[in-house]
């Protein structure tokens, strides 16, 4: 598991200055398992340092992603969700009705990866993907309400 110190050493190794704002961003990212948006990181940081601009958060997350320590995906709402790369790659089924997100086994998309390469010569990176649609429960609710007179 990547710690705040690991992030800090990586940034220092890249020659970036460690500011109190950056340290708070690294602390926030290191404390979270799963997804977090830049706005959520920003909300955690401004509790301790109210003058931190959200662009500072975005820049820091982008640097961490360039260094291979973070990755991001966009769900149906268009908001980038960041996740540490020390977490296992996974996919999501995201419901556009109730906003639930269900983890999907990585292996299920391997045939798609092979087919994209076979047909189009395209080498896909499906390490972190969101497939949007309507979950089983919301489909049941929609069917139940459409059957009412």
Give the name of the CATH architecture of the largest domain: Orthogonal Bundle
Main pleated sheet: 3 strands, antiparallel
> CATH superfamily membership of the largest domain, which one?
Winged helix-like DNA-binding domain superfamily/Winged helix DNA-binding domain
Low-pLDDT runs: none
The CATH topology label of the largest domain is Arc Repressor Mutant, subunit A
Structurally, the number of domains stands at: 2
Please render the helix and strand layout as text.
Layout (H helix, E strand, L loop, with lengths): L3 H10 L6 H11 L5 E2 H9 L7 H13 L3 E5 L5 E5 L5 E6 L5 E4 L5 H11 L7 E6 L2 H11 L3
Parallel strand pairs: 4-6
Antiparallel strand pairs: 1-3, 2-3, 4-5
Structural overview:
The structure is a single chain. With 149 residues, the chain is of the alpha+beta class. It folds into two domains: 1-86, Arc Repressor Mutant, subunit A (Orthogonal Bundle); 88-149, 2-Layer Sandwich (Dna Ligase, domain 1). The protein is 44% helix and 19% strand. The chain contains six helices and six strands. The protein has helices at residues 4-13, 20-30, 38-46, 54-66, 110-120, 136-146; strands spanning 36-37, 70-74, 80-84, 90-95, 101-104, 128-133. The strands form two sheets. A three-stranded antiparallel β-sheet has the order 1-3-2. The chain has a three-stranded mixed β-sheet with strand order 5-4-6, with no helix packed on it. Helix 1 (4-13) packs across helix 2, helix 2 (20-30) packs across helix 3 and helix 3 crosses helix 4 (54-66). The longest helix has 13 residues, at 54-66. The radius of gyration is 19 Å and the shape is flat. The protein starts with a helix and ends with a helix.
């Amino acid at each position: 598991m990547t710690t705040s110190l690991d992030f800090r050493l990586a940034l220092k190794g890249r020659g970036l200055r460690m500011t109190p704002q950056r340290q708070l961003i690294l602390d926030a990212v290191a404390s979270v398992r799963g997804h977090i948006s830049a706005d959520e990181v920003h909300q955690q940081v401004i509790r301790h340092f109210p003058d931190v601009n959200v662009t500072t958060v975005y820049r820091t997350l982008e640097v961490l992603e360039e260094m291979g320590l973070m990755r991001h995906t966009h769900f149906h709402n268009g908001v980038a969700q960041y996740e540490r790369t020390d977490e296992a790659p996974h996919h999501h089924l995201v419901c556009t009705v109730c906003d639930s997100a269900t983890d999907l086994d990585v292996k299920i998309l391997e045939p798609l990866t092979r087919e994209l390469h076979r047909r189009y010569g395209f080498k896909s990176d499906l390490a972190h993907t969101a497939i949007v649609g309507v979950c089983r429960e919301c489909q049941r609710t929609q069917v139940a309400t459409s059957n009412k007179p």
